[in-house]
Amino acid sequence: MACSSVSNSSSMNRKNNNSPLNYLALGDSYTIGESVAESERWPVQLAERLRADGIAINAPKIIATTGWRTDQLKAAIEKDDELLETYDLVSLLIGVNNQYQNRSVESFAPEFEELLQKSIELAGGNTNKVFVVSIPDYGKTPFGASKAEKIAKALNEYNRVSKEICEKYKVEYFNITPISRQADPDAKLVAEDNLHPSGEQYRQWVESFYKEVKKIAKQ
In what residue span(s) does the SGNH hydrolase-type esterase domain sit (predicted)? Predict the structure, then answer.
């Protein structure tokens, strides 16, 4: 309850001062934008879109590295001594490397839940300021094509679990996985490394959930 009141007070002060929103994006290669330009990363595109709509927002703080699993992201957050006490917007996209490294869904679930709890804490305890993005399906890329069916089945389970956890905490969950599955046969949705999304695919992600995030940002 105390966290909520701090969050509301912080939000009120920010609006009164017309100071920009602070946005924290947590994840892995999909959040850091492996193989695309910095301007094409989806959190950067999202912030730019909000800015174009007259919503003042700072450049996103991104805590993400290619290859990170849930436990590695958690460790990085805990070690970051430059985190603000409260963010106006927090996003989370994680889990593909747990699946790729053959970690079980059962082991993923509690680690994802801990990360979601941490995301809420970093949003000042306000679940309305947090959103989760589903894991894209890399089986639809040239890199994963030979195991496409196996990958799709595994990621469906990972996404099912993460969505259920989001529902438990009443956190917005955006399913971009269907967009990622259009990468076969649409090659323009895949980056030059034949594995990660292209800037165009990230643009489509942002387009798919922009209206909802804009509402969050304006609260």
Answer: 25-203
pLDDT > 90? residue 12: no
Q: Answer yes or no: pTM beyond 0.90.
A: yes
Q: Which residues of 161-172 are buried (b: 16+ CB within 10 A; e: fewer)?
A: bbbebbeeeebb
Query: Considering its fold, how many domains does the chain have in total?
Result: 1
- Domain of residue 10: give its range: 2-218
Residue owning tokens 């996103």: 60
Contact by Cβ (8 Å): 101, 141 = no
Confidence bin at 7 (pLDDT 50/70/90): very low
pLDDT over 80 (residue 18):
no
Q: At 44, which CATH number?
A: 3.40.50.1110
Report the alpha-carbon angle 31-169-90, nearest 5. 30
